[in-house]
Specification:
CATH class of the largest domain: Alpha Beta
GO molecular function, one term: DNA binding
Order of helices and strands: EHEHEHEHEHEHHHHHH
Number of helices: 11
Distance between the termini: 23 Å
Helix content: 40-55%
Radius of gyration: 17 Å
Pfam family, one: Response_reg
Keywords: DNA-binding, Phosphoprotein, Transcription, Transcription regulation
InterPro entries: CheY-like_superfamily, NreC/VraR/RcsB-like_REC, Sig_transdc_resp-reg_C-effctor, Sig_transdc_resp-reg_receiver, Tscrpt_reg_LuxR_C, WalR-like
Number of domains: 2
Organism: Actinophytocola algeriensis
Oligomer: single chain
Shape: globular
Largest sheet: 6 strands, parallel
Length: 218
């Protein structure tokens, strides 16, 4: 069962999200927060598998809350806004996904399951903007990315390439004939050596280094 924490200051939005998530028998909402500070406190208390976090909230905004939860629990930013500044900050602060509230409800379920499975998820509309942003710096970023990747072991590079394709830990394990725990250990080392906070940033590094094409669910 995938345990989800909802964080949104609008009760009707939380009710709608709960209704959508309830259509999947493998997902349950364990707590709801009406502001960012409460979301952080409830995340530590309940340790959900995924946090769905609105950006604009009182007391502590969703981006700041996501930054506090980096490394504690995966956070998917859920918002009506897709401005580049929000996307860039969310990814830089360690969010594992970015989903627009206007998206198809089925996309919400896909995102929750992907992130709970150890993958990352960007709404296709957001992914397009991220990739476009990468291409504006295509002359300088690849060299930096390749230098970072050179610090990895051959096996870690294998894992990173598959992360760049959007595969989950389980899928990477099957591809490389590794135990899922071994994949997680490699990923921890990869994040540390690349000096990135999560799979999204690692996947972007793999793309910039020429190790992977932009996957559909980075």
């Amino acid at each position: 069962m995938i345990r989800v924490l909802l964080a949104d200051d609008e009760a009707m939005i939380r009710a709608g999200l709960t209704a959508v998530l309830a259509t999947d028998p493998g997902i349950t909402v364990v707590a709801e927060a009406a502001d960012g500070r409460e979301a952080v406190e409830l995340a530590h208390a309940h340790r959900p598998d995924v946090v769905l976090m609105d950006i604009r909230m009182p007391r502590l905004d969703g981006l700041a809350a996501a930054a506090e939860l980096a490394g504690v629990v995966p956070v998917v930013m859920l918002t009506t806004f897709d401005e580049d500044a929000y996307v860039a900050r969310a990814l830089a602060d360690g969010a594992s996904g970015f989903l627009l509230k206007a998206a198809d409800p089925r996309e919400l379920l896909i995102a929750v399951r992907a992130v709970a499975d150890g993958a990352a998820y960007l709404s296709p509309r957001v992914a397009h903007r991220v990739i476009a942003g990468l291409r504006t710096n295509e002359l300088t970023r690849p060299a930096t990315a390749r230098k970072k990747v050179s610090s990895l072991t051959p096996r870690e590079r294998d894992v990173l390439a598959l992360v760049g394709r959007g595969l989950s830990n389980q899928e990477i394990g099957r591809e490389l004939h590794l135990a899922e725990g071994t994949v997680k250990a490699h990923l921890t080392s990869i994040l540390r050596n690349l000096d990135v906070q999560n799979r999204v940033q690692a996947a972007i590094t793999a793309y910039e280094a020429g190790m992977a094409s932009p996957p559909p669910r980075i």
